[in-house]
Amino acid sequence: MNHENKLYCSIAMGGWAEIGHTGEPSKSPNVNGDVYPCCPGWLKDDTNPAGYDFGNIYKDKWEDVWNGERAQEFRKSILDGSFKYCNENLCPHLQNVHSKPNVGSIESAPVVRKMKDIELLYEERGEQHRDIIEKQLTELSLAPDVVKMDYDRSCNLSCPSCREDLITPRGKEFELIEKIQNSVIKVIQEGTRKLYITGTGDPFGSATLRKFLLNFKKKDFPSVKTIRLHTNGVKWTKEIWNKMTDLHGLVTDAEVSIDAATKETYVKVRRGGDWDQLMENLKFIPSEVPWFGMSMVVQDTNYKEIPQLIKLRDKLVKESGNKSIYVYFSKITNWGTFTDEEYEKKAVWKESHPNYSDLVRILNENVKKSYWQDRFMGTNMTDLLRD
Ligand code: SF4
Ligand code: SF4
């Protein structure tokens, strides 16, 4: 590969720390404080089926994790352009490399750029990357730009696509989560800019994360400029939000995984959810969060409601006055909660599914590849879209 086409990933080079994920999300709380440079599912490592980890925040010293041998070996694989621990079939950033300048905020800027476009990346993701490339640095500042808090699987729901039963850690498991959180807080205080809460459970349904949000004071985290909440939205009530005043204005980005556009379907796909309460919450959340989204894990039970979810999005835009509301449709994945046979029935995006052509028709009537920027609509089913 010539130098011009060599790739560089800004997330890999100090941009991201994902803490707690083990890659075994089917049953127990499964938290252990392992640290990954991005989503473990996008990484590959012969010695760890969960993905390439840097070490453990709970067992090891942070400097030995973040700048240890494994972290430096990983960063070398980015700087030499081999990306040998990255799975290009699964990493969306590797599938979205282009030369166009970013039109939105830092959050929408491409994560991976070719060396010929590297000046754009410096502009979008920060001048520290110039230093990293010029000096070929593998030892970095101790503060990851973004910390993704994935060390707790607790949730108030038990969606069949995600887990078999409610997960509510108690006793020793709960204590471990609290200890991991205390270690994570110290890392954030080194100078992290953004928090992402959470990819494994629910920020309001988890006792540990809820406590963190309720106690959050800006003065204790002066470097934190923005927070993304990823939630099912049921427990994000006006009452609890009014108790989280230091978060107002700081939560600039939120996604509610709604998975349905009618109560009837909602109760099937979001086991334990409360549709009426969620609709009540959606009356105020979109006007509190500048970049707000609703997502759907598309499956046999809900794919017909794709157009209705888009209509719900349009209704929320009108009611809240917030034009930056998006919808996102993703393929259902088998996290080990379905047998192979059950999964084949759910996975309507597979060509072998009897409703596949109906899904393709509905998607193409409602979503276009180009919609992500101008119509606030996206999907990872672009292979099913005609344009
Ligand atoms: S898998 Fe993707 S996001 Fe992760 S380090 Fe590699 S290129 Fe970057
Ligand atoms: S709301 Fe999200 S985290 Fe909770 S059970 Fe459902 S899919 Fe899993």
Description of the structure:
With 387 residues, this protein is α/β, with parallel strands linked by helices. It has 15 helices and 12 strands. The protein has a 10-stranded mixed beta sheet. Strands 1-5 form a two-stranded antiparallel ribbon. The two termini are 30 Å apart. One iron/sulfur cluster (SF4) is lined by residues 9, 11-12, 37-38, 42-43, 83, 86, 91, 93-94, 111-112.
Set out the fold topology.
Layout: E1 7-9, H1 11-15, E2 16-19, E3 34-36, E4 55-56, H2 62-66, H3 69-79, E5 112-114, H4 118-125, H5 128-135, E6 146-149, H6 171-188, E7 194-197, H7 207-215, E8 226-231, H8 238-242, E9 251-257, H9 263-269, H10 275-281, H11 285-288, E10 291-298, H12 306-320, E11 325-331, H13 340-346, H14 356-366, H15 371-374, E12 377-379
Parallel strand pairs: 2-6, 6-7, 7-8, 8-9, 9-10, 10-11, 11-12
Antiparallel strand pairs: 1-5, 2-3, 3-4
One iron/sulfur cluster (SF4) binds next to loops.
